[in-house]
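May I ask you to comment on the folded chain given beneath this request?
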Amino acid sequence: MPGAHPALTACRLAGMELRNRFAVAPMTRVSATEDGRATPEMAAYYAAFAEGGFGLLITEGTYTDTAFGQGYLHQPGITDEAQAAAWRPVVERAHAAGARVVLQLMHAGALAQGNRFRDRAAGPSAVRPLGEQLTKYRGSGRWPVPMEMTRRQIAEAVSGFAAAAVRARDAGFDGVEIHAANGYLLDQFLTPYTNLRTDGYGGGVEGRLRLVREVTAEVRDAAGPGLTVGVRFSQGKINDPGWRWPGGDAEAEAVFTAAAGAGADYLHIAGGGRDWFPQGPTLPALARTVTGLPVIANGGLHRDAVARRVLDEGHADVLAVGTGALANPDLPRRVAAGEPRAPFDPRVLEPLATLDNARTHAPA
């Protein structure tokens, strides 16, 4: 019989005291009000994970400005006091149940398919994104060609991240996580085929990393020392899941050290386990080694044998679980009690990834 699960041990993650190493991964649920306010249903949704024993909750991506940041209709935002106030019950219920909670800050860039402030998306270059919009988030058809962002628009985006971090701090969040993954704006700047710029934000990897550095530094400075600041990276994108950094591990090192040098307190690596262990170091392990920062790993970690090995071998400090958490909001309690886990039912995300749809297909 295996011993106690290593994820059940308490830890300190970048200034946050966690009762265990299980985190809820950020998952888009498009269930806020039309004007971007979190709802009582969202508070109950997040509270269920806290009450189920998760040590850390990372919210869905939350838009940061009233220009080009919003990606989806009914996505939550944190661009004004009304939106910030609507998040407070979410934080309070999570804290009351013993969890820490981090707000993920997101700018969709060229992958915006529902923005009530603008009728056109904007990104690093006027390059049509691959594939088609996501129907489960109310999109349809091909992605439109975005505008190429001006220097002023880039500066406005950076300021939006910083102001959002201050509102998150004042709303009671324990931290913020800068979304530089999955094909959204910061990842678009990192990616050669979506970033064709010839100014200081394009070209080689250092230029393409400039926006990540600027956003991280501005958020760190604005939020002050009391708020934890993380950065999430991935290679795959929502519209190009097979993409890999062309520079391999050397490029990965440049990415991770740029965020660390700009003031990140932790890194969150989605995927990058080389499908968990076939060859070479995993990207979470590489991030941990080259930066010395704590690392959250995400991707397939509802599988017990993989999760144990990730922690036992030092690949990461915390495990972020997505679909496994949707199927088992009380996953940490089930693990502690040795109880079986419910399988994930994909119908909770189809045809729309909303909380109303999830209730229809909730586990018994």
